[in-house]
Structure formats: structure tokens, C-alpha cells
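hey can u check if this looks right to u? its 126 residues, i copy pasted from the old doc so theres a chance i mangled smth
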Amino acid sequence: MLLLGLASVHDNLPKGADADDPTAYSDALRRYLKGAVARVDDLSHRIVLEIVLGTGDEKWENRDWRRETAKTRRTRAGELFRPEGVDVSADTIRQIYEGRAIHELAQIVWKDERLIREESPDLPPD
């Protein structure tokens, strides 16, 4: 629920969206995360996030990664992780790289929130 309350998510709600419609908020969160993940600098982190979070459907064979298990998604991310073709195990993705990727994404989300809250006097400070 915390993520659904982000000002960045509210900015991605369609015009006239019902404030009580959880689907509108989850769609807005997905749109926001997809854009935020696209701004992650490290390509390997972006690959992990796009597949593990399921935001890169169009880039990854139009597959809906959200319907796959976490291990399946991590395995696929490990196959695409290194350009030289050396697979990284799902456990290594989970234990080492996923946390780093989420940290980079969290920095982007934090900066976005700060910017929106600084520009909108009606929002409470963080």
C-alpha cells in the first residue's frame, strides 16, 4: 500500500480515475515503475528489474513475466544478465544483484518523490 500512496503514482493515474478503484492505482504504479526502471543507468540492473518486476514485457518476447514464478523470472534474468553469454544463477540474481538493482531504483523513486513534493505545496513533506 505504501507504493500506491506515492505522489509519483498519483501523477500516473488517468484523468478522472476513481479514488477508490484499486485497479487504477495498480495500473498507475506499473506505469510509473516501468518509466523509473527505464531510467536505471546500469544495464544489468535494468534487465533484472524489468524481468523480476515484470515491467519489460515488450522487450522480452512479449511475455507476461508477472505470471511466472519469481525463480523463473530470476532464471531468465540470469540468462540475459551478461552480454558475453555466461548465465548467472537465479540464486545469485536474488542474493546479490536484485538488491543492488532495487537500491538503484529506490534512489530514482526517492528523487522523484522529493521533486514532486517540492513542486506541490499542497502535498505534505516527506
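The chain has a mean pLDDT of 84.
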